[in-house]
Amino acid sequence: MKLHPHDRLILALDVSSVEEARTTVQRLGDSVGIYKIGYQLGYAGGLALSDELIRAGKRVFLDLKLHDIGNTVAKGVESVVRLGASFLTVHAYPQTMKAAHEAAAGSGLKILAVTVLTSYDDADLFAAGYELGVSELVAARAEQARDIGIDGLVCSGEETSMLRPLVGAGMLLVTPGIRPAGAASADQKRVMTPTAAIAAGADYLVVGRPILEAADPQAAADSIVAEIARARPE
Ligand code: C5P
Predict the structure, then answer these.
(1) Per residue in 187-221, pLDDT tens?
(2) Is 2 annotated in the active site?
(3) Which of 93, 137, 146, 155 has its CB surrounded by the most CB atoms within 10 Å?
């Protein structure tokens, strides 16, 4: 798929109020292609804001990580389709993925599956009752997502290079934990530069604090877009 480099940059709108989010979007304009709304802003008026952004021609990623009985997931996805969002996350459980995939079929909404949360290690999975370690479970869920027809996966930079050969070119890989060279990693333990993530096979980069907390957010976004353009010229 041919995309402008700025279409590959997803800004995580991790702010606590709609007002702050509006200011950020106004400052960044078209420097970023997609605005991601997660729990923090979503439960603070972000869903109404997403409607406003979509009407203004912006693309919106709802990072709501849905997981419920199939019927409930399907009804939720139908509402997100009506809203006109471009991306929605679900947890990578087969029933959940199937329900979301079927409910989004034929719409412009792309479903992204979260395989295993990156805050989980093998011991956390064991404590939650799983017998597989993180890398086995990530691989198994990625294959299930691919077989169900899910559009893409959210995965760390490290997972990206493992998953690209496993799922093939057809699935979108969306990678958070991006830090431009020299930026503080904050609480992200495994970080990659935009260049490294694109080289590892990422289609989209999710960036929050390196842009939100920059003295000049637009310059920070533009420099990431320039890095994407160099890493993936097309
Ligand atoms: O501020 P920062 O660039 O670390 O933000 C990364 C964004 O990506 C946050 O919205 C976070 O919730 C999200 N994310 C992540 N790691 C994952 C999945 C999503 O950091 N594995």
Answers:
(1) 777 789 999 999 999 999 999 999 999 999 999 99
(2) no
(3) 155
